[in-house]
Amino acid sequence: MLTLKQIYDDREGVITGLEKKHFQQAREVIGQVLTIDRQRKTAQQQKDNASAEMNKISKSIGMLMGQGKREEAEQAKAQTGSLKQDIARYETEMAEAEQKQTALLLTIPNLPYAVVPEGKSADDNLAVKVGNLPTCDMASLQSGDYTSAEHAGVRLSDWKEQWNPVCAEAKQPHWDLTKKYNLIDFDLGVKISGAGFPVYIGQGARLQRALINFFLAEAAKSGYTEIMPPTVVNQASGYGTGQLPDKEGQMYHCEVDDLYLIPTAEVPVTNIYRDVILDESQLPIKNCAYTQCFRREAGSYGKDVRGLNRLHEFSKVEIVRIDTPEHSAESHREMLSHVEGLLQKLELPYRILRLCGGDMSFTSSICYDFEVYSEAQQRWLEVSSTSNFDTYQANRLKCRYRRNEDKKVSLCHTLNGSALALPRIVAALLENNQTADGIHIPAALQPYFGAEKIQ
Fold this sequence. Notes:
Largest sheet: 9 strands, mixed
Shape: elongated
Helix content: 25-40%
């Protein structure tokens, strides 16, 4: 949630940033927020004036009684009674204004950083780095600091087909391979739950477990503390990280208990620090968590939904950081490097995208997506989003820290990323590594899977 200080300090800059995210009502809503805040301040001033007057009169009552001026004392008592009613009215006006103000602020997305490119859709995202691609004319995307503003990248609308990996022979899609090797039963999932809830069997289940353990082990090597959180959260947690209010209806809601199935471990893990004041010496905090994740995927029917491409329930390892504003950019770079390292060890062709303003999430200030190439489907599959939320989530969460130097309490920065989401990783591993005598398992994964191939 944006702070009032941000809005008062740079109203036009805030509006410009929101327009970059294509928040069409930016000027109108910001104007409403400030109007309501002026109403709240007026009620606060009236309350303070009435309270001061009441205190003054209250002090005089005893003196008047001591002087035998009973009638004047009674009049003073009547005045204080009237002022109490006024104060109660002003407090109600303040509470109503604060409630309206908060409700409006919750509808306003986070501000994008300056380095975020202009754009309306995924076609306007920038490919800023590639890896494991056998291309000879992409040197600018294979080296350098891709997080810097000077690194322009390649707009996806300009991405050339020749830059995609070239397959020497036709490859089977993962939904055929899972049948061939009896790895996943999609029909059984439909029988038990419905479409988008696959059942993993035998070597398919073992591959899932191997990837989870590999991702968690790599996170531990990078200094992340593993958390095993609940997979249902309350409303306060959903509002804290920005999943609520859920305009798109993507969260599963358990109405009887008013609980929500988590769409990502980001929600429960970040909420550990809701209403907490940390010491600066504790930062950065680095947590990771494996959970099942649940998304309704409303509105996505018929769109790239075959096999593992789009599920209602899936496994994911998430990395979460809480940091100071001064260090959060470095934390973000470290997180990006960690995710990239996983893809390198899995030997998958990948590209890193800097998302444009129109394709970023509601809560992020900057986001990089990682995509892997599916040789069978001949398309790129998103496997991670790694974001810095600046103070946006922290303001909702009231997640703060006390500075070492001056003991001042300030908002933290929050960051998170998928490291990694399993379904499309599994799809790419199966499709890209298929051979005549089985599916090759990358060397880094073999100790966790217990074999070199799926046969």
